[in-house]
Design brief:
This protein is α/β, with parallel strands linked by helices. It folds into 3 domains: about 150 residues, Rossmann fold (3-Layer(aba) Sandwich); about 170 residues, 2-Layer Sandwich (Dihydrodipicolinate Reductase, domain 2); about 80 residues, ACT domain (Alpha-Beta Plaits), CATH 3.30.70.260. About 35% of the residues lie in helices and about 25% in strands. It has 15 helices and 18 strands. Strands 7, 8, 9, 10, 11, 12, 14, 15, 16 and 18 form a 10-stranded mixed beta sheet that branches. A 6-stranded parallel beta sheet has the order 3-2-1-4-5-6, sandwiched between helices. Strands 13-17 form a two-stranded antiparallel sheet. A hairpin with a 3-residue loop joins strand 11 and strand 12. The termini are far apart. Its EC number is 1.1.1.3. This is Homoserine dehydrogenase. Pathway: Amino-acid biosynthesis; L-threonine biosynthesis; L-threonine from L-aspartate: step 3/5; Amino-acid biosynthesis; L-methionine biosynthesis via de novo pathway; L-homoserine from L-aspartate: step 3/3. Its cofactor is a metal cation.
C-alpha cells in the first residue's frame, strides 16, 4: 500500500440495515480495505433523514443535506436509500461531476439505468451495482465481465427471498397463502407492506437488470411480464407434488430465436411448477439462486443469501473496493453494453407450457371435447390425467410448448365448455424438456 496516497473519500447516502453494516465494516477493518485498494478509505459524511435515530454513527458525519454531501469533496457516492427520487437526482449529480457510484437500488436501475450509464460515460465515472439483484451472491459481475465472451441464452432464478420463503413453507406445511404470509411477517421475512415482493415488482426490477446484462439490450421493468403469488393455492402446491414438482416464483430472461433466425428478448416473472430434480427446486427459505445457461460455459448456478444487512453489505463493499482500485490505478470499470438492441418479445408471443386443472362432469366425451379445444388452438398435449367420479371428477392437462396467448385463449375457451364446471387452476411449467 502507498502510505502517501490520499484517501478515497466516500459519501454514504442512507444508513439503514445495510448502510449501518457498511459503515461498521469500513470502521472495523481500515487496514484490510486500504491493503486491498491501495489507499485508505475515508467516510466523509452519512446522509439520513432523522439523525437522532442513528446514535451509533459519529455525530460529525451525520447530515440531512444529501445534495450538499454529494456536491462536496468526495470521490465515491454509495447510495442505499432506495426508491426513484431523490436517489436518481443525487446519483446523476454525482456521476455528471465525475464521482463514481455504488448503488443497491434495483428499482432505479430498472427504470433509469440508461440515463445513469450515459452520465457515467460522459464523465468517465464508474457505476457498480452488484447488490441490486441478489444480495451477497456474486452474480452481476460474472454476467457483466466473466461471461462477456460467451453467449448467454437463458437466465432463470429465484430472486426474492420473501416469496421463496412463503412458497417453500406452503409446500412443506400445506398451509394457505394468507396464513404463510402472516408467518413470514412475524419472522421478519416480509415487510409490513409486502406488495413489492408478493406482487412481483421486486423480482421484475431484478429481471430487467439481468436481461439487460445477459443480452446486451436495454430492458426496463415495464418490459417485464409480472405476476405475483397471491393466487397460488394449497391445491396448486398439491397438484405440483403429484407430478413430482414444486412451485417457485421465477424470474425468467431468455433469448428467443424464431424459425427465420430473428432474435428477441423475453423477460417475465411468475409462479411456475418446476421438477423437484431441478437445482432451483431445493432452494428453500429466504435464499436466492439463479441458473444461467450459456453456449460455451454450459449451465451455471449461483446460490446464497439474497438479502439482509451483512450479506448485502458484502456486495456493496466488493463494489466499493473495485471502484477504489480503479481510482488508484486510473482505470475504469465496465461500461453499459447494449449493442445488441434486441426487440422485447411480448408475453403473448413467448413460448411457455401450462399445467391446467379442470373440474369436469363425470360423463362420456369430456376428454374428447377438451382435447378438441386444444387442437383448435394448435396446442398439443403432453400429459393428461382424469381422476375421481361424480362431483369429484377432475382432469389435469400439461401442454407442450406454445405461445402464451394461444395457451391463454385455449383456457378461456375450455372454461366455456358445458362439460367443464370450473377451471380450478392454471400454472406455467418450467425447467424440463417441452
Amino acid at each position: 500500500m502507498n502510505q502517501d496516497r490520499a484517501p478515497i473519500r466516500v459519501a454514504l447516502l442512507g444508513c439503514g440495515t445495510v448502510g449501518t453494516e457498511v459503515l461498521r465494516l469500513l470502521h472495523d477493518q481500515p487496514d484490510e480495505f486500504a491493503a486491498r485498494t491501495g489507499a485508505p478509505m475515508l467516510v466523509t459524511g452519512v446522509a439520513v433523514r432523522r439523525p437522532h435515530k442513528h446514535p451509533e454513527v459519529p455525530q460529525h458525519l451525520l447530515t440531512t443535506d444529501a445534495q450538499a454531501l454529494v456536491e462536496g469533496d468526495v470521490d465515491v457516492v454509495v447510495e442505499l436509500i432506495g426508491g426513484i427520487e431523490p436517489a436518481r437526482s443525487l446519483l446523476l449529480t454525482a456521476l455528471r461531476s465525475g464521482k463514481s457510484v455504488v448503488t443497491a437500488n434495483k428499482a432505479l436501475l430498472a427504470e433509469h439505468g440508461s440515463e445513469l450509464y450515459a452520465a457515467a460515460d460522459a464523465s468517465g465515472a464508474d457505476i457498480y451495482f452488484e447488490a441490486a439483484v441478489a444480495g451477497a451472491i456474486p452474480l452481476l459481475r460474472p454476467l457483466r465481465e466473466s461471461l462477456a465472451g460467451d453467449r448467454i441464452n437463458r437466465v432463470m432464478g429465484i430472486v426474492n427471498g420473501t416469496t421463496n420463503y412463503i412458497l417453500s413453507a406452503m409446500d412443506s406445511t400445506g398451509a394457505g397463502y394468507a396464513e404463510t404470509l402472516d408467518e413470514a411477517g412475524r419472522l421478519g421475512y416480509a415487510e409490513a407492506d409486502p406488495t413489492a415482493d408478493v406482487d412481483g415488482f421486486d423480482a421484475a426490477a431484478k429481471a430487467a437488470i439481468l436481461a439487460s446484462l445477459a443480452f446486451h439490450t436495454r430492458v426496463t421493468a415495464s418490459d417485464v411480464h409480472r405476476e405475483g403469488i397471491s393466487g397460488v393455492t394449497p391445491g396448486d402446491i398439491a397438484a405440483a407434488r403429484t407430478l413430482d414438482r414444486t412451485v417457485k416464483l421465477l424470474a425468467i430472461c431468455e433469448r428467443v430465436v424464431d424459425e427465420d433466425g430473428t432474435e428477441s428478448v423475453s423477460a417475465r416473472v411468475h409462479p411456475a411448477m418446476i421438477p423437484r430434480s431441478h437445482p432451483l427446486a431445493g432452494v428453500g427459505d429466504a435464499f436466492n439462486a439463479v441458473f444461467v445457461e450459456a453456449e460455451a460455459a454450459g449451465q451455471l448456478m449461483f446460490y446464497g443469501q439474497g438479502a439482509g444487512g451483512a450479506p448485502t453489505a458484502s456486495a456493496v463493499l466488493g463494489d466499493l473496493v473495485a471502484v477504489a482500485r480503479n481510482l488508484v490505478m486510473a482505470g475504469k470499470g465496465p461500461r453499459e453494453s447494449a449493442h445488441a438492441q434486441l426487440p422485447i418479445r411480448p408475453m403473448g408471443k413467448t413460448p411457455t407450457r401450462y399445467h391446467i386443472s379442470l373440474d369436469v362432469a363425470d360423463k362420456a366425451g369430456v376428454l374428447s371435447q377438451v382435447a378438441a379445444t386444444f387442437n383448435e388452438h394448435d396446442v398439443s398435449i403432453s400429459v393428461v390425467r382424469q381422476q375421481g367420479r361424480g362431483e369429484e371428477a377432475s382432469l389435469v392437462v400439461v401442454t407442450h410448448t406454445a405461445p402464451d396467448a394461444a395457451l391463454r385463449s385455449t383456457v378461456d375457451k375450455i372454461a366455456q365448455l358445458p362439460v367443464v364446471r370450473e377451471v380450478v387452476s392454471v400454472m406455467r411449467v418450467e425447467g424440463e424438456p417441452s
